[in-house]
Amino acid sequence: MNRHTTTKWTAWRTLLIDLRLGFSASARWYVLTALFALCSIELAVAGSDFFGIEKASLTWADHLALFVGGCEPYVFRQGLIFVPPAGWLLGLLLPAYMTLGYPYRDLMGFGQHALIRTSRASWWLSKCAWIVLTVIAFWAIVVAAATVITVLDGVPFSLRLTQGAFATVSGLANVPPGGIGSLPFFAGVLGMSVALCLAQMTLAFIVRPSVAFGCMAALLVVSAHTMHPALLGNYLMLARLGDAVPGGVSPLVGLGVAAVLAPASVVGGLFFFRRTDLVAKELFA
Amino acid sequence: MNVIARDITKAFKDATVLDHVTVQIPAGRVTGLWGINGSGKTMLMRIICGLVRPTSGEVLFDRKVLGRDLAHPLSTGALIEGPALLANRTGFDNLRLIGMINGTATDRDIRRAIAQVGLDPNERKKFKKYSLGMKQRLGIAAAVFEKPDLVILDEPTNALDTSGVEMVKRVVAAERERGAAVLMACHDKSVLDAVADHVYCMEAGRVVREEDPR
Questions:
Q1: What is the DSSP letter of A229?
Q2: Is the CB of A108 less than 8 angstroms away from the CB of B84?
Q3: What is the ipTM of this complex?
Q4: Is some CB atom of chain A closer than 8 A to the CB atom of B160?
Q5: Residue B111: which residues within 8 A CB-CB, separation 6 or more?
Q6: Which residue of A has its CA nearest to B53?
Q7: Which of B18, B94, B102 to mutate to test the interface with A (most CBs of A within 10 A)?
Q8: For a tag site, which of A219, B3, B21, B55 has the least CB within 10 Å?
Q9: How large a percentage of chain B has pLDDT more than 70?
Q10: Is the dihedral of CA A84, A87, A90, A95 positive or negative?
C-alpha cells in the first residue's frame, strides 16, 4: 500500500532537515559569535599594548590564538583570589550553548516525527553530525574575525605564534625568536571543542541539558584554575601550550584525547539513546 | 499491515503504568482505546510508536518485532499528546519537512491532507499563530498525509468544536476505507462508538473490557 524508503536515505534526509532547522535556530548565535570574536580579539590586542607589545609584531595566528588566550594557572598567595578569564570562558561556552538546545528540543518536539519514521541511530548520528558542523562553523567565524582584524591592523598573515601573543596571556612563556607553529594548537582546539560538545550532548541526554552545561562550565573553570593534562580545558588555552610554557600541555596529546573522546561520546550516547524512554526531562533554551 | 501490541507491561521505578496489555490493530479497521486520564492509553501509543521501550512484551508489525527485527515502526503516522510542530513555519512547510524524511509524499498529498482537515493549504500564517483547534487539525493532517499503513491518533478531538469532531470522524472513516490500521484514543466514548470497530476499555494500566460498537 505504501511506499517505503531505505534507512540509508531517511538517515541522510534527517541530517538535511537538522542542518536546515538547526542552523536556522542558531542564526542569531552566529551573529553574536562574530561580534564577540571581533571584540574579544580586539580587546586582547589592545591589552598587549599594556605589556609593551607592538601591534605590528603580532601575526594572524597570534590574533586567532588570542581568542583562546586563557590565563596562567592560579598560584595561591595571600589576598589573591582566583578569577576565571571571562573572555576565554565565554568564547568556549558559546559553542557549548549553541549546540545544547536544539537536539533536546527536537527530541521532545518535531524530532518525534523523525523518530517514528527512521531509526534512533539515524536520529542520533544526524544530531552528532550537526554538532560537529555547528562547532566547525563557529570556529570558521572566529577565523574570519581574526582575519578581519589582521587586515585592519595590516600585520602579516603568518601561521607562526610569536612571543607577543604569549606575553599577553602568560608571563611564563618562552618562545624562540622565529616563533612556533600554530597548526597543532589550532587543530587541538578544534578537535577538543568538537569532542567536548559531543560529550556534553551525550551527558545532556543521560542527565539533563542544564546539568550537562553546568559540567562543561565547571570543567572549563577548573581547567583555568589548574594546569593539568587531565583537565581538558587546558588544551583550549594558549597560555597552557606546552611548546612555549613550562609544564604546559601538548596539543598533540589534546588531539589524541579528542580523537578518543569524540567517538566515545557518539557511541556511548547511541548505546544509551537506543535504550532510553523518550520522555521529557526538561525543555532547555 | 496488522499490528499487535502483545502482553505489554511498562513499569517505572515507582509505578506500573501498563500491566500485561494486549491490543490488536488490524488493517482496514478502527481500533479504539477508551479510558480516563492516566489509564495508560498514551503510554501504549508511545510504545507502539517506538518512543518508549516496554518493560516486557513486544510490538509486532506484520510479525516483525519492533526493536528486534525493526529499528522503527513501519509506515506509521501519529498524533500523540498534541501536534509537535515547528512554531515558526507554516502548516504546509511543517508537513513538507516531515515528508522529507521518507520522501514519499508529494506537495499534492500535503495540500490534500491539509484541506481534508478543514484548513487552507495556502495559509501563510505561522503555526504559532494558529488557534488550538487549527493546531490540532494540522496535527491530524501530519499523521495521515503520507498515507501510512498505521495511523495513531491520541485524543484527536481535543480542542475541536463540533465541526472539528465531525471532521475527525470523516478522516478516520477515510483512513479505514483506504485500508489503514487506525488506533484512536479518546476519552469521549460517543466518538469512539461512532467510528471504532473494536474498543479496548482501559483502567489503571489494564484492559478491563472489550466492545464492538459497530
A1: T
A2: yes
A3: 0.90
A4: no
A5: B92, B121
A6: A277
A7: B102
A8: B55
A9: 100
A10: negative
pLDDT 10s digits, B10-37: 998 888 999 999 999 999 999 999 999 8
Residue for grid cell 491530524: B140
- Please state, in angstroms and as integers, the Cα–Cα distance from residue B87 to each residue in A280, B129, B158, following that order: 18, 8, 19
Of A30, A16, A24, the C-alpha closest to A105 is A24
Residue in B140, B142, B143 with CA at minimum distance from that of residue B166: B140
- B46 CB near a chain A CB, below 8 Å? yes
Question: Whose grid coordinates read 600554530?
Answer: A182
Chain A residue with the nearest C-alpha to that of B1: A1
Q: Give how far B74 is from chain A: nearest CA, Å.
A: 8
Residue spans per domain, chain A: 7-275
B75 to A109: CB separation less than 8 angstroms, yes or no: no
The Cα B120–Cα B104 span in angstroms is: 22
Cβ contact A112–B85 (<8 Å): no
Average pLDDT over residues B160-178: 96
pLDDT digits (tens, 9 = 90+) for B65-75: 999 999 999 99
Residue A279 has pLDDT above 80, yes or no: no
CA distances from residue A138 to A90, A112, A219, A225, B101 in whole angstroms, order as listed = 13, 27, 20, 25, 27
Show me where the domains of chain B are located. 1-66+181-214
A258 grid coordinates: 579528542
- For A95, the enclosing helix (H) or strand (E) is helix A86-98
Buried-exposed string A84-99: b where 16+ CB fall within 10 A, e elsewhere: bbebbbebbebbbbbb
- Any idea which fold B1-66+181-214 has? Rossmann fold (3.40.50)
